[in-house]
Design a protein that fits this description.
The chain is of the alpha/beta class. Helix content is 40%, strand content 16%.
């Protein structure tokens, strides 16, 4: 059903773009046919990129994914920018209807006098009619709107690709926790999410993230889901640099929704364990400094419930000491409602990508309690990272990638 809906939406988007960019700006003929064939080819490329691997079960090829996902970003912004020009285009069309088209001679103005016979004149030598303008006003308006939408879309996608493919920002966020022992003042947790290793982001992407985290010299590393978009066989080599993560208390991981899109989630959990990354699978562990401690817990992503591996807050938070603070790793911000009802002090999440591509962050904001940054739900603080990677189009507009260092302090 999802594939059918996606196909219909993409088809309607391409039809609208064809109408505005091609049909309204060209005369019937070879030029229009060629432009139409190019657009149809790009539509087929996009459908193949998005649907073919999911239907056939074959790995995504970078040779197909790069042009396909870039076109995905471009067609989305072409659709939006052309929609944004509609009010202006309609207003100009009304203006254009008030006068004759440039290729039509204006009718002579009435004089108010009875017509008189023209005086005989000597015949003038015949001269050819002046050439008519190449386009009328409506075509000129359509071409101007198409050019503006195309330039804006290419500019946005170019800027967004440079942002998405560039290094993540390193953010430092101080968080004050009740009951935190002074021994942990200044404790640094590197939080990274949504790395999305896949056909567009491979080993070098991981190496850069690991290097940037190690440069911060964190006490603990938390990977809060959506690490991979493929199997261990496809992406195991890309994930290998995770073994080089350095921190005093180790590296911890919780599943995101994308970890359940592969056939065997358990294979990845075993691979991460081999790389020295500890999965908190509805579990908790105490982080200690001498006699002082706080509890670090993790819950599975909500999508795991479809695979019989969903979040279990009873297991994750069971038996904790209420005299010390609890920090919860949970991929999706929506899990904070349950966390707050159970007295969690701080939840660390990702999933939203900060919206990734403006203005789509408005839609994300409607289904999640927070888009990015630090907020409060009840007595629980929620921090949402924008993530260090991307999904789908390699484009980020208004939502730069980040790695966050959460620095703890007492309230």
């Amino acid at each position: 059903m999802f594939i059918v809906v996606l196909g219909v939406v993409l088809g309607l988007m391409h039809l609208y773009v064809w109408k505005r960019l091609i049909k309204d700006t060209t005369a019937p003929g070879l030029r229009r046919r060629v432009a139409t064939l190019v657009l149809v080819a790009l539509a087929v490329l996009l459908v193949a990129t998005l649907i073919l691997p999911r239907v056939t079960g074959t790995p995504e090829s970078p040779w197909l994914a790069w042009p396909g996902y870039l076109w995905f970003g471009l067609i989305a912004y072409l659709f939006l920018t052309l929609l944004a020009t509609e009010p202006i285009r309609l207003a100009l069309w009304r203006w254009a209807r008030r006068g004759p088209e440039p290729d039509q001679p204006a009718a002579p103005a009435p004089t108010g006098h009875a017509p008189t016979a023209p005086a005989p004149t000597a015949p003038e030598p015949s001269t050819p009619d002046p050439p008519k303008p190449a386009v009328n006003r409506r075509v000129f308006i359509a071409r101007t709107a198409a050019l503006a939408a195309g330039a804006a879309s290419v500019g946005l996608v170019g800027y967004g690709a440079a942002t998405a493919l560039g290094p993540p920002n390193v953010l430092t966020v101080p968080v004050r926790l009740r009951r935190l022992d002074p021994t942990f003042d200044g404790f640094r947790m590197a939080v990274v999410s949504d790395v999305h290793l896949g056909p567009l982001s491979g080993r070098r992407h991981t190496e850069r993230i690991v290097r940037m985290i190690n440069e911060q010299e964190p006490d603990l590393v938390a990977i809060v889901g959506d690490l991979v978009d493929g199997t261990v066989e496809e992406l195991g080599r890309a994930a290998e640099p995770l073994r080089d993560l350095q921190s005093r208390e180790g590296t911890f991981f919780v599943t995101g929704n994308h970890e359940y899109f592969v056939d065997d989630t358990a294979s990845w959990l075993r691979e991460l364990d081999r790389l020295g990354v500890q999965t908190l699978r509805n579990a908790n562990t105490a982080i200690r400094r001498g006699a002082a401690s706080f509890d670090l817990a993790g819950v599975n992503d909500v999508v795991g419930a479809e695979r019989g591996d969903g979040p279990d807050f009873d297991r994750a938070l069971g038996g904790l000491d209420e005299s010390r603070p609890t920090i919860l790793l949970a991929h999706q911000p929506i899990q904070v409602t349950e966390a707050s009802s159970r007295g969690v002090d701080l939840q660390l999440s990702g999933h939203t990508h900060g919206g990734q591509m403006w203005p789509f962050h408005y839609a994300v904001d409607m289904v999640q309690p927070a888009l990015a940054g630090l907020s409060t739900v009840g007595d629980t603080q929620l921090y949402v990272t924008r993530g260090a990677g991307f999904w789908g189009p390699p484009v980020r507009v208004g939502a730069p990638p980040d790695i966050t260092v959460v620095t703890l302090g007492g309230a």
